[in-house]
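Backbone-to-sequence.
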């Protein structure tokens, strides 16, 4: 069934809490999507961000980002007073995120909420004053029990990070870094309150998110989640289960992930993520991955898996290297992983992110899984069909007439320029190709050409079409989400509530109807 949706991170939602979160603005956005005839809301990973603020580098693959907890919701639950946060300076602009400022002020507010929560949790009166206890702590015990496989270890990890001024766990003393049982038990006893704080944050995060997702589903909107293939080096995942990663006896990576040198980078890309020990995963029946995907299916209706080619072959770089030049391709788990997931969890909806250099074996793996892959309009005019002298004209797989039904078409992703920004940056030859393909005159405004390219995506044979909200709004690169291999300006853009008005919803609905995506 043909359908369409919007790509926009949670942090890009409008609001007065310093960052987009699970506040009333999130519910308003879902109302907007429903009014605009959109079936999907695609988001970026919900994990707790670490250094660099990237949602693709998280302290835990299971934990949620405490920044997304709504302070207003905590106020409604009587865990905060509005006066404790309403006048706090979260940053200088509602269109930008000041992560440094959030780190300094938001956790203090959340600790205030935790103190009240703990007082209710510890109270002997099961009803609490006016039922406050029932409202605030309902389900807490079942939540901690249901998530015991990761929750407590994560909370201990975060408490230890606080104790070490935020340093990577690989810089901790050996007894903590290597998880000496006696040392960890002693730490837990001495820091039970701090550990409880991090468990509370996760309870509140998941309670709020599940309420929001339930509302979206009731409105006919499904959530497309996004997970990175790898976990961060400094994460509770690696700290808790080093045997599942390629680590040495000292608890440090033997090899790390990245990409080889190419036309964009002479030294390649050194991501630094620890690589999986796929033999260990296979020996366990892929238990960790099954747990991960099971958690994803609680949070999302569809899951997009980033860097899907890494399951076929992964690029292994010696951990001591400073560039990616000496890496080697090694065989991944292949179809065996997805066979195990399917056997345990049944049919689940997955989108395979197969962008970049795609080999025949990657294509074969995607075909065997049956998962839809991705098509990007911005890639359709970059000369990919002329990279080989034997390539036929129009052979670029991203041109709409080459799309397949079992695919998801995007104008661009979070890593790409906005369409308007892209039109400003491409070569004259590429721009002329866009004009020719869209049957446009040279004098056409770039905003009008942006709209034509959005229509091109919606008119594709691909069953699903996902458009970044910036492209419907015709915004330039000042609204770009991420520029890979750069720091400081990424993951910060926020939309204005006034931009998502009835006029835009009506236009989006009309397009959805024209191209049969209802």
């Amino acid at each position: 069934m043909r359908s369409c949706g919007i790509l926009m991170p949670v942090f890009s939602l409008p609001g007065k809490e310093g960052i987009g979160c699970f506040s009333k603005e999130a519910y308003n956005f879902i109302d907007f999507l429903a009014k605009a005839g959109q079936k999907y809301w695609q988001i970026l990973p919900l994990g707790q961000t670490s250094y660099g603020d990237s949602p693709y580098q998280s302290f835990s693959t299971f934990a949620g980002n405490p920044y997304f907890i709504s302070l207003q919701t905590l106020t409604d639950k009587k865990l905060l007073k509005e006066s404790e946060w309403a006048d706090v300076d979260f940053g200088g602009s509602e269109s930008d995120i000041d992560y440094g400022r959030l780190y300094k002020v938001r956790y203090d507010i959340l600790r205030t909420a935790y103190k009240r929560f703990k007082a209710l949790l510890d109270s002997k009166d099961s009803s609490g004053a006016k039922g406050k206890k029932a409202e605030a702590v309902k389900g807490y015990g079942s939540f901690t029990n249901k998530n015991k496989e990761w929750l407590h270890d994560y909370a201990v990890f975060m408490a230890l990070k606080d104790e070490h001024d935020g340093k990577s766990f690989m810089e901790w003393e050996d007894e903590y870094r290597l998880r000496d049982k006696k040392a960890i038990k002693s730490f837990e006893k001495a820091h039970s309150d701090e550990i409880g704080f991090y468990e509370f944050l996760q309870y509140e995060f998941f309670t709020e998110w599940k309420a929001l997702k339930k509302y979206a589903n009731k409105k006919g909107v499904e959530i497309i989640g996004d997970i990175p293939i790898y976990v961060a080096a400094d994460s509770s995942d690696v700290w808790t289960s080093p045997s599942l990663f390629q680590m040495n006896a000292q608890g440090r990576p033997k090899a790390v992930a990245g990409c080889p040198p190419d036309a964009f980078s002479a030294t390649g890309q050194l991501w630094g993520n620890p690589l999986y020990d796929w033999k260990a995963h296979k020996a366990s029946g892929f238990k960790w991955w099954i747990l991960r995907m099971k958690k994803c299916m609680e949070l999302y209706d569809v899951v997009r898996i980033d860097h899907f080619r890494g399951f076929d072959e992964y690029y292994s770089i010696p951990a001591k290297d400073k560039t990616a030049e000496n890496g080697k391709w090694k065989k991944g788990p292949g179809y065996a992983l997805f066979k195990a997931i399917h056997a345990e969890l049944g049919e689940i909806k997955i989108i395979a992110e197969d962008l970049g250099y795609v080999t025949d074996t990657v294509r074969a793996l995607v075909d065997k899984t049956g998962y839809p892959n991705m098509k990007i309009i911005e890639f359709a005019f970059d000369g990919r069909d002329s990279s080989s002298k034997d390539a036929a004209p129009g052979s670029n797989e991203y041109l709409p007439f080459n799309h397949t039904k079992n695919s998801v078409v995007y104008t661009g992703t979070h890593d790409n320029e906005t369409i308007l920004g892209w039109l400003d940056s491409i070569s004259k030859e590429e721009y002329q190709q866009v004009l020719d393909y869209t049957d446009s005159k040279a004098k056409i405004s770039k905003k009008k050409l942006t709209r034509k390219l959005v229509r091109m995506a919606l008119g594709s044979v691909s069953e699903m079409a996902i458009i970044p909200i910036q492209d419907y709004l015709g915004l330039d690169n000042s609204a770009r989400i991420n520029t890979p291999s750069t720091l400081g300006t990424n993951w910060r853009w926020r939309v204005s509530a006034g931009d998502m008005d009835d006029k835009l919803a009506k236009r989006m609905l009309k397009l959805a109807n024209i191209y049969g995506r209802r």
